[in-house]
Amino acid sequence: MNKVDRLLREIEKEVGYTREWTGKSALASEVIEAIREVPRHRFVPELAQAFAYENGPLSIGHGQTISQPFIVALMTDLLNPGPNSVILEVGTGSGYQAAVLAILVRQVYSVEIVPELASKATRLLKNLDYANVEVRQGDGYYGWPEHAPYDGIIVTAAAPMIPPRLVQQLKPDANLVIPVGEPLSHQELMVVSKKADGEVVTRNVLSVAFVPLTGSHSRQPPRVR
Predict the structure, then answer these.
(1) pTM summary value
(2) Which domains does the chain have, with CATH numbers?
(3) Residues 67, 85, 94, 110: which is the catalytic one?
(4) Catalytic residue flag (residue 67)
């Protein structure tokens, strides 16, 4: 069994372990094939490439990580993208999640707050011919309104609350997939669904651990609930 097939087997096992919480006994075959196709070793630092196809997160510098492949696959599946979808990603990081999405959808717009990561991901995605991904350096907490509304939004860092601007930029009958919680505290992966009539419904999926979503919002006083 090669390293990619072994990784996919590990993801399959993880789906089985977590199905009580996620409600999923299997992920969409299109998602699994996208994970198979993307060369994850190209999205991690050279010293970490030996671990690129293990089912765990890896540091990519600047206090950021490339997420565990199972979590990437699960979040992509929960997003429920289609071939004509236009997706917003908040937190480009290394570009790996954007590359997975690029195989599945028409267009990915991705926002990264760390200038060095935004530049590096832009170059790498271009070199690997992911022509339907556009990366912008900026604060993704406020989305990318110029291209809204989106058929789905995925956030790859934990926000202290669901960002209202992202919900506003979501199309009806679309999902926002986001980890919510404070650093070094309890975080929940959530699906925020905007119904056709504009009603917003949230669902907790799984306990997770993500780096925090940084930006100007993180310097504001915490909201009293």
Answers:
(1) 0.93
(2) 3-213 (3.40.50.150)
(3) 67
(4) yes
